[in-house]
Amino acid sequence: MTATETRSVEDWTAVNAELARASPSEILRWAIDRFHPRLTMATAFGLEGCVLIHLLAELQADVRVFNLDTGYQFPETLELRDRIAQRYGIEVEMVRPEQTVEDYERAHGGPLYVANSDQCCYDRKIVPLRRALVGYDAWITAIRADQSSHRAKAMTVGWDSKFQLVKINPLLNWTRRDVWAFIVAHRVPYNPLHDQGYPSIGCWPCTKAAGDSQDERAGRWAGQAKTECGLHSLDSSQL
Ligand code: SF4
């Protein structure tokens, strides 16, 4: 761990204590006051991301929001981007890999999402994400602690040593019920696939409907041990 990271871990312990009872809106306010305009947000247009966009529209609508557009997203997801723009005036930036899906699959003799999904996620999500975060001091994500045992280890604010900037998770302590209640109360636009049995929505080749499963990550990389694409992998500096 570098000196910068060590100092950050110590600093963030106090900040997390300070924000322990803060609402998502208050956490965003804190982040905006501290980091804007070097603050950005990544969204896959999940339910939680839509809630955060709604809050940013109220607090600071010019925070740059981006989506990692792998080329494999559902049409419903892409259409949601337009509905968000109409509702909030926030144009989510689409960050794309250098190669189109056609060029990528041609270069690899076919799609990699079955044979080597880790490589596919790395090439089409992680590499573009690294590029998208250059020049920013902090990024906002929409993860919640109760989505998985892995995400339960995250902090509200911490140093992200993987991407070398501060990571802020304003909805970390919300439940899925909290998220749905907010969406209904505020008529927040959301992906219609959630009403068709998809608890979590990623790329179409790696996402299936999960029926009544209580596991929110069910349906993602079904049949594989994989549960994360690598964006939210934690290391020791974040625990
Ligand atoms: S989720 Fe699937 S299609 Fe999307 S980048 Fe990862 S492996 Fe590729």
What is the general shape? globular
Strand order of the largest sheet: 3-2-1-4-6-5
Radius of gyration: 17 Å
Number of strands: 6
Largest sheet: 6 strands, mixed
If you average the pLDDT, what whole number results?
89
Low-confidence stretches: 235-239
Helix and strand element order: HHEHEHEHHEEEH
Structural class of the secondary elements? alpha/beta
**Total count of helical runs of at least 4 residues:** 7
Oligomer: single chain
Helix content estimate:
25-40%
Strand content: 5-15%
List the bound ligands: iron/sulfur cluster
End-to-end CA span: 13 Å
Question: What's the arrangement of secondary structure elements?
Answer:
Layout lengths: L2 H16 L5 H12 L3 E4 L4 H13 L4 E5 L6 H14 L4 E3 L5 H7 L9 H17 L4 E3 L16 E4 L4 E4 L7 H11 L53
Helix pairs in contact: 2-3, 3-7
The site of iron/sulfur cluster has 13 residues, from helix 6.
How would you explain this protein's 3D organization?
This protein has 7 helices and 6 strands, in the order ααβαβαβααβββα. With 239 residues, it is of the alpha/beta class. The protein has a 6-stranded mixed beta sheet, sandwiched between helices. Residues 70, 72, 113, 117, 120-121, 124-125, 202-203, 205-206, 229 line the site of iron/sulfur cluster.
Give keywords:
single chain; 38% helix; binds iron/sulfur cluster; alpha/beta
Briefly summarize what is shown:
This protein is of the alpha/beta class and 239 residues long. It has seven helices and six strands.
